[in-house]
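Render this sequence as a predicted structure.
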Amino acid sequence: MKFGIHSPSYIYPQANIFDAVKARAIWIEQHGFDWFSVMDHMIQIPVHGLPEEPFMEGWTLLSALAAVTDRIRLSTLVTSTSYRNPALLAKMVANLDLISHGRVTLGIGAGWYEAEYKQYGFEYQEKPAERIYRLEEAIKLIKTMWTEERATFHGKYFHVENAILEPKPSQKPHPPILIGGAGEQLTLRTVARVGNMCNFIGSPEDVKHKFEVLNQHGVKEGRAYNDIERTVLCNVLIAKDESTI
């Protein structure tokens, strides 16, 4: 079992938000954690704060953190397929994998925050199923870019033609791909088809059920249960006793 910290920007009220995030990442690495992830949004999401609050773009932030850390694995939790062309995202992640000497995980999802899409002029697909189909196709394209000398991919939503991505990522065959989301019919089927990792949020009972559903999809796709690394995002409060909470 491994432990990491997911670090939303709302906990950093200091004047220079990056200095605070950097200090947190260095502290986490020095204290033996395995993972440091950040959200990938353009504005603060409602569950954590107000949209006007300071918020850093995820991949430029991780690139800076890769240069000041040595061991901890870095990831987004998670990147929407709609915010960047997947071929561009493949190039960005490959660069970060080299900068970090093979410590990057691509955390990716179908997207959901409609207000953010509208503010930044991103195309928002109303149907969740359509967003999930785009997610699966984007992952296939990204893998093609990472592993083939020249990538040609013709999909319904994305395409590249004889595209060169050099240098390739450090990790072979490619950086692990974590898919966020827990929809049982489509999202978990996508995890079973093209994912290396998954992430869930919920009670132990809910998460156990999601693992069982994922395993059912995995059997249909010819994948063993342990082929997919399972992660859970939860809040943990550590104190000496109840009086110090």
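Summary. The radius of gyration is 18 Å. Residues 4-244 form a domain with the TIM Barrel fold (CATH 3.20.20.30).
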